[in-house]
């Protein structure tokens, strides 16, 4: 038996399984939990980081694919759209895989699976390969998008509610940064006169290293179980779909622009692959680095408030992009696009922080307190994250298809940016109407416990 003031050491069984995990217990967290959680966070980020790189691999490869490959701009946008689509869809099963196999075990498997699209791309990447073959191999790269969902679900279980904004922001930001890293690697290879197979050859051993390190240093949590009832409850809850919409506006923008930025510069402003590569990494890099700050600001001021004003800023940046596109101003266009990347990263952190807070509020509104309320919040927020992450990633599909149609219809991306601006307005209105109006549901202060006083209304999620 463990007394109330002690921190039980989590016993393990074979395969690095932790049987006891109570991060909400401050003594346990300080003496045992924090060190273990941070270790798992680090190696989860490493695997997710490489997963993002492989997922967005084709945003780089299409820059290498000149006229000799026989692909039109519309073909390339279609290719990146389908890669994004697969990455979004596989997020749902990846979310539940953590509870089936264990966070450590699934990280090993999911990292190893990245070898399949990487080796396949290495094999077919040459002029004369058919578009259908490129499309099929590109679809395989979509598995890299699933690593985000399993990693977020796993890390969500390791950290206490008061630390989730920071932890999830750092986890996602470290993963997101895989996008600019592979773009920087491509820039170095292009500059050195290398080709796409050199880039692929660099990543194959890195994938193996990530899988081995996960096996050596990560843990499984035995108390993380799949709850089909929770999945059904999350799917029936309106907040899951509202947050999915808002996450389309942030993460959908980030991943969609990551795939499309270089192609827009090439097709609209006539940039060469090297000229495009010099700037395409900047936006994803800054957007990834700022994501933990979005989570930190949400921890302090409330995710809904940060998200609301972030959508305002995203709308303004998009309006500047429309003007720069019409005026054919490359410098203004590039600067505004980078700003939009930064804002999408900030919003990624603030919107994802809202999810556990929303379901914790629902627990308090039901009269639940203490660990019972925390368990309810973890149950529904964990189940909803996979759905929200998947739907949010579908925004990347919409962005690439919108650019494809805009270039086919108008010869530029201006029409697509007008549609994006309208969508950010919708996100602003929904955030305000659902989470920030004074009529939003509140938990009476007289009945709330001290540990829940920071979560008294949806305005504070």
UniProtKB/TrEMBL annotation:
Gene3D superfamilies referenced in this protein's UniProt entry, alphabetically: MFS general substrate transporter like domains (1.20.1250.20)
Alphabetical list of CDD domains matching this protein: MFS_NRT2_like
One Gene Ontology CC term in the entry: plasma membrane
Protein name according to UniProt: Nitrate/nitrite transporter
Keywords carried by this UniProt record: Cell membrane, Membrane, Nitrate assimilation, Transmembrane, Transmembrane helix, Transport
Membrane topology: Multi-pass membrane protein
Spans through the membrane: 41-65, 77-94, 106-125, 131-149, 170-192, 198-217, 238-264, 276-294, 306-326, 332-359, 380-403, 415-436
InterPro entries, per database record: MFS, MFS_trans_sf, NO3_transporter, NO3_transporter_NarK/NarU-like
GO biological process: nitrate assimilation
Source lineage: Bacteria, Bacillati, Actinomycetota, Actinomycetes, Kitasatosporales
Single GO molecular function: nitrite transmembrane transporter activity
Family: Belongs to the major facilitator superfamily. Nitrate/nitrite porter (TC 2.A.1.8) family.
Compartments where located: Cell membrane; Membrane
The organism's place on the tree of life at top rank: Bacteria
């Amino acid at each position: 038996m463990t007394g109330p003031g002690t921190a039980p050491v989590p016993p393990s069984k074979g395969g690095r399984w932790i049987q006891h995990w109570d991060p909400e217990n401050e003594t346990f967290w300080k003496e045992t939990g924090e060190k273990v959680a941070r270790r798992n966070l680090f190696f989860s980020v490493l695997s997710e980081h490489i997963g993002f790189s492989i997922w967005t691999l084709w945003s780089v490869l299409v820059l290498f694919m000149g006229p000799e490959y026989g692909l039109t701009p519309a073909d390339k946008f279609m290719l990146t759209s389908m890669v994004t689509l697969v990455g979004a869809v596989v997020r749902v099963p990846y979310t539940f895989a953590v509870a089936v196999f264990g966070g450590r075990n699934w990280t090993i498997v999911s990292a190893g699976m990245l070898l399949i699209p990487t080796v396949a791309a290495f094999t077919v990447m040459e002029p004369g390969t058919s578009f259908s073959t490129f499309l099929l191999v590109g679809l395989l790269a979509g598995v890299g998008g699933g690593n985000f969902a399993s990693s977020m679900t796993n890390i969500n279980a390791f950290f206490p509610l008061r630390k989730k904004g920071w932890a999830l922001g750092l986890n996602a930001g470290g993963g997101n940064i895989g996008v600019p890293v592979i773009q920087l690697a491509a820039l170095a290879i292009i500059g050195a006169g290398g080709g796409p197979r050199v880039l692929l050859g660099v990543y194959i051993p890195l994938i193996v290293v990530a899988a081995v390190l996960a096996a050596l240093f990560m843990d499984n949590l035995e108390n993380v179980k799949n709850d089909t009832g929770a999945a059904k409850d999350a799917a029936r809850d309106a907040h899951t779909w509202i947050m999915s919409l808002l996450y389309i506006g942030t993460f959908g923008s980030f991943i969609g622009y990551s795939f499309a930025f270089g192609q827009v510069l090439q097709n609209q402003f006539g940039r060469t692959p090297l000229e495009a590569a010099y700037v395409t990494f900047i936006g994803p890099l800054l957007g990834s680095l700022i994501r933990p700050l979005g989570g930190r600001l949400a921890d302090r001021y409330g995710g809904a408030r940060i998200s609301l004003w972030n959508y305002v800023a995203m709308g303004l940046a998009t309006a500047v992009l429309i003007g720069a596109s019409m005026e054919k101003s490359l410098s203004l266009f590039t600067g505004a696009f980078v700003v939009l990347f930064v804002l999408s990263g900030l919003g990624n952190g603030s919107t994802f922080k809202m999810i556990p807070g929303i379901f914790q509020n629902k627990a308090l509104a039901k009269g639940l307190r203490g660990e019972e309320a925390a368990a309810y919040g973890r149950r529904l927020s964990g189940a909803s994250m996979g759905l929200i992450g998947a739907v949010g990633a579908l925004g990347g599909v919409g962005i690439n298809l919108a650019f494809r149609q805009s270039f086919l219809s108008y010869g530029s991306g201006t029409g697509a940016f007008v549609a994006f601006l309208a969508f950010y307005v919708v996100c602003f209105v929904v955030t305000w109407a659902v989470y920030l109006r004074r009529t939003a549901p509140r938990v009476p202060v007289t009945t709330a416990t001290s540990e829940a006083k920071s979560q008294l209304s949806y305005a504070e999620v």
